[in-house]
Amino acid sequence: MTDEREITLTVNGTEHTVEVEPRRLLVHAIREDLDLTGTHIGCDTGNCGACTVLKDGEPIKSCLMFAAQADGAEILTVEGMEDLPEADGIHPLQEGFREEHGLQCGYCTPGMLMSGKALLDEDPDPDEETIRDAISGNLCRCTGYQNIVRSIEYAADELADRAAADGGAVAARTGESTADAGPDGGTAQTPSPEGGHEPPAVGGDADTFCGREDCCGGPSGADPFDREALLDDAEDGNGDAAVDADDRGDSV
Fold first, then answer.
1. pTM exceeds cut of 0.85
2. 141 pLDDT exceeds 70?
């Protein structure tokens, strides 16, 4: 006898009905039942933010929510970004991460993008402090925070320029439901689950935890569970990989 229940999730505009156990986490339902692996699993404890998605427009850490709790919800993952009304091929946030080198190893990028999306939906012109506060729940093990902040600033400027150019039509469409994203829900033509960039050239499977030797080719010997290093990186956020690596005693 199985103890499963049927739930409905609208993900990137496409409605899905899946059978899940009560204990199944939302992140596992998204990745394993729906095969949307752009949402990453990092710490599994809600600390790193790699699993951030938007649930009914609000950023949530999908490793902290049971799938059954999201029954009936509308979910936006990184795969749906390029089909949003404000996207032009790729979303301005994805473009910003590319132009401002905010990607680093890319493992935190999907979560950063979703937190950035939630921020710009609420505050189209955030200052640096507001951006840093908005992404404070997302950890970048590569310590590239400065570039990530600039990436979000780039997106804010780009969205403002597009809104000015089309008389606000883009901004108005941005508020529409992702259910209007398109017939494929934004998944069929997604070139990369990593937020628009190619998989890292060095390392192995990007679905493993960033910091492991077989992941992104990050600092050799880095301890992904080094709490002191994580807190130090999050606090200083100086974006200087060499300085933060020295702090951790890593070599780069």
1. no
2. yes
